[in-house]
Design goal:
The complex is a heterodimer of chains A (297) and B (208). Chain A is built from 11 helices and 8 strands. With 297 residues, chain A is an alpha+beta fold. Chain A starts with a helix and ends in a 22-residue tail after the last helix. In chain B, 41% of the residues are buried. Chains A and B meet through α1 of A and α3, α4 and α8 of B.
């Protein structure tokens, strides 16, 4: 009798809830535009937010409704823009390829003004009298950019400097926003030629700069004189590359006495050599590269 | 028991003294799963408050009007409550999707996660048949619906409070100079232990 009652009670509850759910499924059915789902599938799905939307799905809705251009996905680039244009039947437009580049060769080359003890975050260290580095523009090296990168394109090398994996970087610009020093900046990628990058962005007086870091730009204008295509100029006491003219010939890289100009993509080789023995800082002072933070769900 | 001070005691006992996460160790999966950063933990806490209130009122009614009168509650409450809670969450998800897409987007990820969470089942059971999990000795033999809901609100607010506190701790821990061996989950478990010691310090308050 008790078993019959129990079975009856469970059956009634089960049937009741399933009836309610079945009615609800019909009554609250929501039509989803199939194009939204197709566009969402074409997007990278990393929810990096570089397009200005909260998530890839929100971006997909905007694109499918025609409120946003097909190339809104910064991370996906031309390939994704073409795929989306195919789905929604619009004309594809050219997505500009940009990529992140580090403008600092400091790390172990840079002099420290004080010993920093505290939260291993560039943002926190930067607030404490502008960070532990003597150079006001130098890379603090606690890896805020590495933790922020949604594509795992940034790693911290043994000098405490971020190294950008050119193949993984999508130019979403999140690291640029995250860096409290403006240390990483976007540059336009010239497709055929390997562009060069100046590993210094100090704008203070050259004399003080030299005392702070053994790899700074000393504004000697050697690169400016030697460049065959007139692509590099010393502006405001700092070498600046004009990427429209740069052919990536590498002349400036060879002539730079400070080794602060580098071929992009060869992120570590040159400055590691320069750091040997010359660096006043030691690796022990630098933070261990932190592991990427997982976003729980 | 139904004076205001007794209801307040019921709430404080459920939220702080017998905190479900830190002194009862129920619902540890979301405690470690979604406490990685503040945003997800706040979303999860709100969703838990919502689901627990819904689940408790539904199971209280089923216990009071179906299981108890039939005399089958003692051995049937777990399957019956799981059935009710799971379908309730499903229903709420469907309803939210239609009625409030914004809220659905915000809660959608967390709602299914809570469906079969032990914390929800424990709270619902305790609200229907007090004293079973010995989560709050101030409870009487049975609760009215209002008392059950205040108790549930206390548990879920305590859950959210502990979760958000722990998320704040973990955000700092990620940046702290932690020895490599302890980085990540190990130090999180150690921190959880210390946090729970702090909560155990509240046992005995007001005789709870």
């Amino acid at each position: 009798m008790l078993i019959a009652k129990a079975m009856g009670a469970l059956a009634v509850i089960g049937l009741g809830t399933s009836a309610v759910l079945a009615t609800a499924a019909k009554r609250f059915h929501v039509e989803v535009d199939p194009r939204v789902e197709a566009v969402a599938a074409a997007l990278p799905g990393s929810n990096c937010g570089a397009c200005g939307n909260a998530s890839c799905f929100a971006a997909a809705e905007g694109i499918a409704m025609g409120e946003k251009p097909v190339n809104s996905c910064v991370a996906g680039g031309q390939k994704v823009a073409d795929a989306i244009a195919l789905i929604i039947g619009a004309e594809s437009c050219v997505a500009v390829a940009v990529i992140s580049a580090r403008h600092c060769g400091g790390g172990t080359n840079a002099v420290r003004a004080y010993t920093y003890v505290g939260v291993m975050s560039c943002a926190a260290a930067n607030r404490l009298a502008g960070g532990p580095l003597a150079c006001a523009a130098g890379c603090i090296g606690f890896g805020d950019c590495q933790r922020a990168c949604p594509f795992g394109a940034i790693s911290m090398d043994e000098r405490g400097l971020p190294v950008i994996d050119v193949h993984r970087c999508t130019g979403c610009g999140i690291c640029v926003k995250e860096c409290p020093r403006g240390q990483i900046s976007l540059l336009e990628l010239v497709p055929e030629a390997a562009p060069v990058v100046v590993r210094c962005n100090a704008h203070d007086k050259v004399k003080g700069r030299k005392a702070n870091c053994s790899m700074c730009c000393i504004a000697c204008k050697k690169c400016e004189r030697e460049c065959p295509s007139d692509a590099i100029h010393v502006i405001d006491m700092l070498a600046v590359v004009d990427y429209e003219k740069c052919t990536g010939c590498g002349t400036c890289v060879e002539v730079c006495p400070q080794k602060c100009i580098d071929l992009y993509g060869r992120d570590s080789a040159i400055d590691v050599k320069a750091a040997d023995g010359a660096g006043p800082g030691t690796t022990a002072e630098l933070a261990e590269p932190a592991e990427p933070v997982e976003v729980g769900a | 028991m139904s004076t205001v001070s007794q209801l307040a005691l019921l709430f404080i006992g459920a939220a702080l003294v017998n905190n479900i996460l830190l002194t009862r160790f129920i619902g540890l999966c979301p405690f470690f799963g979604v406490s990685g950063n503040m945003d997800t933990s706040i979303g999860m806490s709100l969703a838990v408050v919502f689901v627990m209130m819904m689940a408790s009122s539904a199971t209280w009614a089923v216990w009071e009007f179906v299981l108890q009168p039939l005399g089958v509650g003692e051995f049937l409450y777990i399957p019956a409550f799981i059935l009710i809670i799971a379908s309730l969450v499903q229903f709420v998800e469907m309803y939210l999707r239609k009625a409030s897409p914004v809220l659905y987007r915000a809660m959608g990820i967390y709602l299914p996660l809570i469906t079969t969470n032990c914390a929800v089942l424990a709270t619902a059971t305790e609200a229907a048949k007090p004293g079973f999990f010995k989560m709050n000795i101030a409870l009487g033999a049975s609760l009215s619906l209002g008392e059950a809901l205040i108790y549930t609100l206390g548990v879920s607010v305590g859950f959210g409070f502990a979760l958000v506190t722990f998320a704040a701790l973990r955000e700092r821990l990620d940046l702290a100079p932690v020895p490599r061996l302890f980085k990540g989950s190990p130090i999180a478990f150690i921190a959880a232990g210390m946090l729970s010691l702090a909560y155990v310090g509240m046992s005995g308050w007001f005789g709870l």
